[in-house]
Amino acid sequence: MACAPLxxxxxxxxxxxxxxxxxxxxxxxxxxxxxxxxxxxxxxxEGGPDAYLLQxxxxxxxxxxxxxxxxxxxxxxxxxxxxxxxxxxxxxxxTVLVAIGRNVFDAPAPYRGLGGSNDSVAHFDICCRNTSLYxxxxxxxxxxxxxxxxxx
Length: 152
Ligand SMILES: [Fe+2]
Prior knowledge:
Blueprint: E1 2-3, E2 12-16, E3 21-22, E4 27-28, E5 33-38, E6 41-47, H1 49-60, E7 69-74, H2 87-91, E8 96-101, E9 123-128, E10 132-135, E11 138-142, E12 145-146
Antiparallel strand pairs: 1-7, 2-5, 3-4, 3-9, 5-6, 7-8, 8-9, 10-11, 11-12
The protein binds fe (ii) ion.
């Protein structure tokens, strides 16, 4: 499940812990990364070596959109294997996925794609375990448990 936020609306701090998945690097994080979001944009990237690498990766895109929130969502599949980086990382039940960068994905089918205006060359998915997700102030997931039954 994924949804695209209003492009200038994301606010807060997103923490990536070792063992979470930096899908844009096709591997698990080895160090903590703390992203600060203001007005839909990442304004600060702090932490260990992975924070440095993520900052460098997004800067290399050479456009401002690389630092903007793209989409957020959650996994619903109990069968997914966290040790297998890829689609399983995006799918595992109760995990949270947040993506940075491009959000103009178009698809021929109706109601597909994100329909945004960010045409950055960068797109970076981040998949996290044991975290919480709020949408419009409502708690959706807490430590891999769905707090809204209809969404799990
Ligand atoms: Fe994505």
